[in-house]
Amino acid sequence: MLAPAKELEGILLIDKPSDHTSHDVVARVRRKLAMKRIGHAGTLDPMATGLLIMLVGKATSASQFLISLDKEYTGTIRLGVSTNSQDAEGEVVETRPVPPLTEVQVNAAIATFLGDQYQTPPMFSAIKIDGVPLYKSARKGEEVEREPRFIRVMSWELTRFAPPELDFRLRCSKGTYVRTLAHDLGNKLGCGGHLSALRRTATHTFRVEQAVTIEQFEAMSRAEIAERLIAVRDAVPPGFAL
Fold first, then answer.
1. SS3 letters for the chain?
2. Among 51, 60, 145, 207, fewest CB within 10 Å belongs to which?
3. pTM score, two decimals?
4. Which CATH architecture has domain 71-203?
């Protein structure tokens, strides 16, 4: 009788497609590997694409450490249109004319968001208040008081200036709501705005160029998947206990 196959263990980098929740990706990985012990280290909104760190087997024990790592994103802000979710998936709640802004003015406004700060999470988020996810209250039209959370924006730069659209690259701490930054920047510029596109390009030293699409992953053999797994010892500090 053949010995049972050894359970897979390690970190798998997936390039998440749009219109998939992070849970959808977890479900597809579970189905492919026929394993229940699958997780991820940092949620991406359904609209967002890019790097999703999947944790396979015992690697799920490293979740809290990996979630705490800094993130890098690219994206697009649409000025003049505000939505209730602060991104393109929400309903438009206000439109305002975009003033004749210069790139210097926008960069000056962006600079005010750099560094340590407190950010109030958006109503359309999975944070629970008294056991109820905020997005459920938001869908009922309810506004719930939220505790501001500490975040850090290390860098935020324009990569394309074409009002009403602004492309950017951002490095920030865990827990940063990029759509809230987009919303707040729009208000600072006097016209409102929302996040129209977002892609996570890196988490610490993990980069999206190292990732596979979910379709590529599902086409792989178990041996090919095992070769792609990154050992937890190569991603966490020495002495980290699984």
1. CCCCCCCCCEEEEEEECCCCCHHHHHHHHHHHHCCCCEEECCCCCCCCEEEEEEEEHHHHHHHHHHHCCCEEEEEEEEECEEECCCECCCCEEEECCCCCCCHHHHHHHHHCCCEEEEECCCCCCCCEECCEEHHHHHHCCCCCCCCCEEEEEEEEEEEEEECCEEEEEEEECCCCCHHHHHHHHHHHCCCCEEEEEEEEEEECCEEHHHCEEHHHHHHCCHHHHHHHCECHHHCCCCCCCC
2. 145
3. 0.90
4. 2-Layer Sandwich (3.30)
